[in-house]
Amino acid sequence: MPFPIKVCAICSEEFELKPDKPGFANRCPECSAEESSDPVTKPHMDAVDRKIQTEANAARRQAMRELLYRKDS
Questions:
Q1: How far is CA 4 from CA 10, 14, 26, 35, 64, in A?
Q2: How is 7-71 classified by DSSP, letter by letter?
Q3: CB-based contacts of 26: which residues, under 8 Å, 6+ apart?
Q4: Fewest C-beta in 10 Å: which of 3, 20, 36, 64?
Q5: Claim: this prediction has a pTM higher than 0.90
Q6: Are 23 and 36 in contact (CB under 8 A)?
């Protein structure tokens, strides 16, 4: 049984839609491979940046706590 023939939404080339093809069903393997090859990395943070972020998060939590639990007097 032949695989269905699809047209790529990016490059308009025809390709066979195989069951184990990585990526999207409307993109050819070449166009799908470009997206998956970019590794997602976290930005490198040193100790000072982590401390600043921790303090900012604590201040946000405190502000939310004050807004949520303040008594209307």
A1: 18, 10, 12, 23, 54
A2: E-TTT--EEE--TT--S-TTS-HHHHHHHHTS---PPP--HHHHHHHHHHHHHHHHHHHHHHH--
A3: 6, 8, 9
A4: 20
A5: no
A6: yes
Yes or no: say if 53 and 43 are a contact pair by the CB < 8 Å rule.
no
Q: Phi then psi for 69, rounded to 5 degrees? A: -110, 15
- Sequence letter at residue 4: P
Identify any residues that bridge with 14 across adjacent strands, giving them in sequence order: 7
Phi and psi of 50, rounded to 5°?
Answer: -65, -40
Rg, Å, the chain Cα set: 25
Contact 32, 22 (CB under 8 A): yes
